[in-house]
Q: What sequence folds into this?
């Protein structure tokens, strides 16, 4: 066991001092994962239905194909501004999404991309990935640092060779939420997350925060999988669809959540959220100027107002 640990440390040390070695190994890993997705896509019975692009369209040098290496809602939303900027700046005439994106849920593809008026369709061709663009520069995506005055959406934009001259971009979504009067002026809490990084803070710490700040949570979303529900709140929201979830976020008075897809979605809907985070969450993902970011490591918050 000790020998294995020593080998792992030696490998990590070698990667730190050798950007070329890191780039080579990371590129190989990325391409292996992409190849696996291509094989899966090729044998998918829905393959034809997935693609709405003609080979001629995607061969055009004025066409951008976006590929995202991860399939979460937040991953898509971090790239959601690219189609609009690609066309408004005149850099590309057409924008497609690669079917190699491993969408975690089909509804995210529909709401973020199929409803986007700047997206021309989908293609089975591979595209440009932010992670791959970094790797080609010898930059580790896991140790990537955001430059001063920018957020991660700006960095993704620039990596794709786009620049509209603006900074601190927000995610974009073109669904128009419906107002739901039952949630107006209500304080809501979403206890759910996907990333395991959010499981280091116990429910007691959250209860302490709300109690110390005299915040009464009116309702919380029903726990699903990874979650940290409040014992002090007994009214549960059982939303029946992603559409309803968007409508509830749009309609409520305040939403408290973790640094996960809900926070990115709220930003895309133009909704201010109060987002819990801790030292294990990279600052890259605390990107929205709309939100208040609340550190659970200390009494102070890192809120952006």
A:
């Amino acid at each position: 066991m000790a020998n294995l640990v020593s080998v792992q440390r030696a490998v990590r040390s070698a990667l730190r001092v050798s950007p070329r070695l890191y780039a080579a190994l990371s590129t190989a890993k990325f391409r292996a994962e992409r190849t696996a997705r291509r094989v899966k896509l090729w044998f998918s019975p829905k393959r034809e239905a997935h693609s709405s692009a003609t080979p001629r369209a995607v061969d055009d040098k004025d066409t951008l194909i976006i590929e995202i290496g991860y399939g979460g809602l937040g991953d898509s939303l971090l790239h959601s501004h690219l189609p609009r900027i690609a066309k408004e700046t005149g850099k590309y005439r057409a924008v497609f999404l690669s079917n190699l994106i491993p969408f975690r849920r089909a509804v995210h593809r529909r709401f973020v991309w199929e409803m986007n008026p700047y997206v021309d369709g989908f293609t089975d061709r591979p595209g440009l990935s932010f992670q791959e663009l970094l790797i080609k520069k010898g930059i580790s995506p896991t140790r990537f640092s955001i430059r001063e005055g920018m957020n991660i959406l700006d960095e993704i934009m620039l990596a794709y060779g786009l620049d509209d001259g603006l900074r601190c971009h927000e995610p974009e979504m073109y669904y128009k939420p419906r107002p739901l009067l039952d949630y107006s002026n209500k304080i809501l809490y979403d206890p759910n997350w996907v990333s395991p990084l959010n499981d280091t803070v116990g429910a007691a710490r959250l209860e302490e925060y709300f109690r110390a700040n005299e915040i009464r949570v009116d309702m919380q979303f029903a726990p699903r999988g990874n979650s940290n529900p409040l014992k002090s709140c007994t009214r549960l929201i059982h939303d029946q669809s992603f559409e309803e979830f968007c409508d509830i976020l749009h309609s409520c008075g305040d939403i408290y959540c973790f640094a996960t897809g809900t926070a990115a979605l709220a930003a895309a809907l133009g909704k201010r959220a109060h987002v819990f985070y801790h030292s294990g969450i990279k600052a890259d993902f605390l990107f929205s100027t709309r939100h208040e970011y609340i550190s659970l490591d200390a009494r102070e918050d890192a809120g952006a107002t």
About this structure: The domain at 181-295 is CATH 3.40.50.2000 (Rossmann fold). Residues 298 and 305 are 19 Å apart (CA to CA). The two ends are 49 Å apart (CA to CA). Confidence is low (pLDDT under 50) at residues 299-305.
